[in-house]
Each structure stands twice: as C-alpha cells, then as structure tokens.
Amino acid sequence: xxxxxxxxxxxxxxxxxxxxxxxxxxxxxxxxxxxxxxxxxxxxxxxxxxxxxxxxxxxxxxxxxxxxxxxxxxxxxxxxxxxxxxxxxxxxxxxxxxxxxxxxxxxxxxxxxxxxxxxxxxxxxxxxxxxxxxxxxxxxxxxxxxxxxxxxxxxxxxxxxxxxxxxxxxxxxxxxxxxxxxxxxxxxxxxxxxxxxxxxxxxxxxxxxxxxxxxxxxxxxxxxxxxxxxxxxxxxxxxxxxxxxxxxxxxxxxxxxxxxxxxxxxxxxxxxxxxxxxxxxxxxxxxxxxxxxxxxxxxxxxxxxxxxxxxxxxxxxxxxxxxxxxxxxxxxxxxxxxxxxxxx
Length: 344
What we know:
Elements: E1 9-18, E2 21-31, E3 36-40, H1 47-55, E4 62-67, E5 70-71, E6 82-85, H2 97-107, H3 112-125, H4 141-154, E7 159-163, H5 171-188, E8 191-196, H6 199-205, E9 208-213, E10 216-221, H7 223-228, H8 233-238, E11 243-250, E12 253-256, E13 259-262, E14 270-275, E15 280-284, E16 290-298, E17 301-307, E18 313-319, H9 320-323, E19 331-336, E20 342-343
Parallel strand pairs: 3-8, 3-9, 6-7, 7-8
Antiparallel strand pairs: 1-2, 1-4, 4-5, 9-10, 11-12, 11-14, 12-13, 14-20, 15-19, 16-17, 16-19, 17-18
Helix pairs in contact: 2-3, 2-4, 3-4, 4-5
C-alpha cells in the first residue's frame, strides 16, 4: 500500500450521550497510516457519530481523538485538515466542476494557477478531466460524487472521511464508484474512514472492517477474517448469510451434517452453528433423507434450498454448473467444508 501521505488515527474510549441515548459506548479504534477502515453496521449503531466526532462536527461526551500523535479532541473542525465526502454531493451549482474541486484551495489562499493545476490533477485522478468546464447539473449522480471526492482530496487532507458516499446511487454505478474510490485511495495513500451500512461495500474496499452495534465496536478485522471467523453472534448474523444448524460442542468440535468442525472462540457448548451457504455441500444420493425444495439461478452461482427430515430448510450456494443437476424433490444428503463455525 502507498503510505506516503498516511497518518495514524486514534479514537480512544469514545462515548457520546444524547439525553438518555448512548450513541457511542466506549469505542476505541486505531487506524494505521494509509489504511482504509470501514465502519459497518445498521442504522443507529454509532458509526456516523464516530465519524462526526473524528471530523470535529460533534463532541464526545468522554474519550479522545488524536491524529498523527496530536490530540485533536478540542480542535475545531476547520483546523483538523480533513476531507469529507457525504451521501449528498453538496456541490456548488453556480461553479464549474473545476472551481468546485478548487474551492477548498481558494479558501486556503492558494494562487489561481496552482489551484487550477491541482484541480485538474484531481479531476484526472477520478477520470473527469474532460468535464472540468461543466456545471454540476450537467453531470450524472456518479460523476457528481467523483467531483466531491476530487474536491475532498484536492486540499491534501491528512484524513479522508466518507459518510455513506454511495447510498444515493443506483446499484451498477455504486459498484463502479466503490472500486474507483478504492483505487484512488490506494494511489494517494490517505488514511481513510469509510462509513456504510452495506456489507458488500465494506468488504470490497476496506483493509479492515469494524462492525458496530449499539455504540460498541464488536469486531475489527480484515474482510477475510471478519467473514470466516466472526467474533460475536451479532457479527456472524450481520455479515453474510447463515444457516442455523443445531449442534453441541465437545472438546472444541461441533458436529454439522455428520462432519466434525472446529468451534470458533466464543462458541456456546450447545446451540446453533452459523454455517455459510457456500460451505454447504449438496450430494445426489437416492438413499438420502433430505430433499431439494428449490433451486434459484443467480447467474454464475445458484442457491439451492434443501428440506431436512425435521422440516428445516438449509441453503447451499453452489456454482450454477453444479446446481443444474438438481430438481425439486430430488433425494440428497448434505455435507460441509471443514471451515470453523461459531456456535451461538
């Protein structure tokens, strides 16, 4: 990762209380220089409050904020050297795209030639150089959000803050811009906090993902670890689809579909194993006690719904080339890959 502009960020034991509601409840987060961290969680979990406190737009009830080793807890927002991109593009309608991008530089007293050169560099970075002389209303939503990103980066902020920047866009544009944000962030090397409620978005762009619930950071890990080794039942439920398969744990081993699986730390001795659909194996077997309920074709993958003898449904996610052999009513048996599971 390119870290030439990166700074470390420390949120330490942050609480934020609004009346009787605790929006943040002792949240601590360390971000490495140049790292992109995504805060993921449902509405009201505290992720935007944490971002606003880092930006200086809100004050913590207790706790501290430091950037590059400097305590910023009492420093006003306009002195914090941060770039922000919100859900609403917030472009100035009377300014051209170039002048929108250069606006922060103008406020900082940068001369006209240098402003123009920097704005053009940033527009080039986000692929909008040919639109420099247009106005915001002449651009699509995705293009306007790229302008907002260019404007945030033009001032060379120490930290970039992205608050649900893609949620107003349609699905295809969202994916394109998500990948573009990651490319730009990696190229520039700015330490970045990305807030989203969309798990696919968080897993796709971030170096690490923090899952939040009720003002607390439940788990902070790489996307791969977060998905494969959820630390709490909330993380297991919130990230990805799960089958809930009854099991007991003996000596750290849970039996699932007759297969011994390692139980993750934090597992209960008895309960349900959280089994990802893509780890479930469906095996054609005329003597099998399970039956295919339905097959949903989703392009390269298919979801296969299987009815077990007790009437419960298990969902398997298979390559469509494998799933096409199954029809509703077929007798099958289930297996599972040897991935560890959380028992809750």
